[in-house]
Amino acid sequence: MNAILTSFTRFPISFSKEFLTVAASTLVLLLLCVLFAPSSLSYGALSGSLPFAATLAIVGLGQMLVVQQGGFDLSVPGGVSLAVVISSHVPAGNSADLLPAILLAFVCAMGAGLINGFMVGFLRLNAIVATIGMNALLFGGVFAVSGGVPRITTDLLAVIAGGEIYGIANAIYFAIAIVLIFTIVMKQTVIGRRFEAVGANPLAARAIGQPIRLYQMMAYLFAQLHYCVAGILIAGITVQPTAFQGNPLLLPSVAVVVLGGTSLLGGRGFPVATVIAAFFLSQLSQLALAVGLPYSAQTIIQALALGFGIAVYSLRWTRLKEFTLATKKEKTNEII
Amino acid sequence: MKLFNQKTKITAAVAMLSLCGTATLAEVPSWCGPSEASVALLDGFGGNSWRQITTASAREEALKCPQVTSVEYADGQGNTQKAISDIKGMAARGIDALVVFGDAGPAVLPAVTSVYKSGKVVVPYRVDIGGKAGENYTKWIGASFVNDGENWGRWIMEILPNGGKLLFLSGPAGNSQGLDELKGLKNVLGEEYVFVNPAPFAVTNWDPALTQQVLTAEVSKNPDIDVIISDFGPSLLGALPAFAKFGKSIPAIATSDGNSLGCFWKENQADNSKFKLFTTATGNDNARLAMQWAVASATGGTMPSDEIFLAPMFENSVSKDPSPVVCRPDMPGAIYNSAQLSAEDQAKIINQ
Lengths: 336, 352
Known about the structure:
The complex is a heterodimer. By secondary structure, chain A is mainly alpha-helical. Chain A is about 75% helix and about 0% strand. Chain A has one domain: ABC transporter involved in vitamin B12 uptake, BtuC, CATH 1.10.3470. The radius of gyration of chain A is 22 Å and the shape is globular. Chain B folds into two domains: about 140 residues, 3-Layer(aba) Sandwich (Rossmann fold), CATH 3.40.50.2300; about 140 residues, Rossmann fold (3-Layer(aba) Sandwich). Chain B is an alpha/beta fold. In chain B, α2 runs parallel beside α10, α3 runs parallel beside α4 and α5 crosses α6. Chain B has eleven helices and twelve strands. About 5% of the residues of chain B have low confidence. The termini of chain B are far apart. The interface between A and B is large, with 39 and 39 residues.
């Protein structure tokens, strides 16, 4: 017993407020699912929704890197769509050509990420403006590769991205692997710790000699690589993807970062909480669908969930508590 | 003997020439009149395989008339302002007849009206842009989505005479195509056919990823769905394997055709006892009828008898009438076997 206690003190398990908030919200959501729409938790329903939650989680982690540096990446749709069309058009149904296609997708993603990073990090362009421009450029690439025409994915990619191992979709394994690597790099390595420090206070980081522009550029580069992985997975999961498959991912990618507790002003990131937030959003849609709500209500519920997420992190609860206590005290004084 | 042979040869040659002459005359359609005319196709958004095949179909139709001197094309790229300036630009270039796919709806009506009033032939098609024939444009050639819904409904009654549970998937919320199709379905089907989706249809935005999520959610809620109705068949492809995860057969499907869907049915029907397929033509040939009207008006030909494009029924896996399920494994999945344009030509267009 003593040994266990010692090991706990040596490796204290602490959970951030952000993690606990999103985990608690997800548990409440799961409880609602059990009560009102148990079908949304059936194996079949989850096997349909979880692969997409996994891709959203990967895109969200990419967006989180940029948000941690106080920016926004609006080139998510272009980045994801380009990866989708390159991985489905270039091999043209021939599995043997899949590897060169995937490598080409990564090269394009690196190019886009470096240009984004250079524009924001070194040329000091506004992140929103720079990434909107890049998004248009990436969609130019989408049209150049595909002409806007969908093509059926190669069998090999459909198996890799859309297949299952032990009854769990492969996309989920990809998401778990990425979040593990992400967390270790961010929380356990010097580079990761410095990355967060630069995001939290660039001026202070520069004062202690950190190359802040380089770190900012890297955020955009690695963000694009995340979108690329997500795009390739989507191409495999949907079998016949459209050329604009990234479009619906832009807002959810920001939503999961916010729900995961990362401040839009930059700084500390919460990768595990972001992944749970992706599951939360996906399961929320499944609950709304399973209950049979009309489309308008589904959209409103998702917007409310996002508003709730922002409120939880933005409100200064301690101030609120102090304010309530002070009001009570005043009232008590009046009575006396 | 030699003379006889020569005579025979001459007779045969004369006969052949006269036959060829008749054939050439017969090839000129009645809607192609005596005057020369140039025509243009104006697409609101040309960036998908369906549009590319539709455009090629309209071009092929126009070139059946030797009086057509040129066929121009402009792609609005989903930008309303570009679509409007394309319409005006084509008229300013002196094109005689314009066939307009007015994706932006009534937003293009003022441009269409001004071009029509300047003496051009304007035939908008498929999307209703408002206005009146003879006042704002020459003729509007719509497609009857109600007719599609009725065709699906009649097939559902054949395979499920005692009623059943239906799931209807369409595109963005409130799109008029889906609403018209539902009207057609309800014209035919009685109370015993229950729609399990939220009214009026399950929203998929015609996006394969969203279709997959919506379908699995609906199936987990209603495991005993008898028929899935969808107005974009190929978007179901990624979603249908989900039935295997529920340990169920893929149900009957009423939808529009696509080569990838036909091939999917051929590959999976043996393992899925309830998987029956019925398709209507996806409607690429709507553009042909619009082109016939435009050329007839511009060249002084006879107007076609059809005023609305009725998508014909295409595949029926049960009765094989009018056609059994078609799969061309050697061709791309994104072609439409129901289109008049040959599969080879379609493949060339989308592989450009």
